[in-house]
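step: validate -> pass
step: tokenize input -> pass
step: predict -> running
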Amino acid sequence: MSDQRLRRRSLALTSLIVLAVAGVGIGAVASISRVGPEDAATPRAHAAHSVATRVVNMPVDGMVCLSCAATIKQKLKAVEGVSNVEIVFAQRLFRITYFANRPDVPRRAAAAINNLGYKAGAPVQIR
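step: predict -> pass
step: emit ->
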């Protein structure tokens, strides 16, 4: 590749990152729960909120844009036992809430991230 083409590509990537950070805000947390407010009155939603949960922060290397984050979040929400996934984009990590009776969730979440081509860091238990 020519130097000029590399510079243009680098500038485009830098612009995307700047736009992504500006759109999310530094330190912002995006969260969408599996159980939405419209479901709060259902028995399933009530049961999901009464079950003991644990929370881990899982750093991810290679996540450079909001599209990457959305793809990873969608994959994490599909992991059985996960009740909520939040993106902490400024710190390049995911906050994963899972049911305490599923201690294998952090390992399976890391495998899901790695299977997408990103690199999951060691999960840090926060609750």
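step: describe -> The longest helix spans residues 3-24.
step: cleanup -> pass
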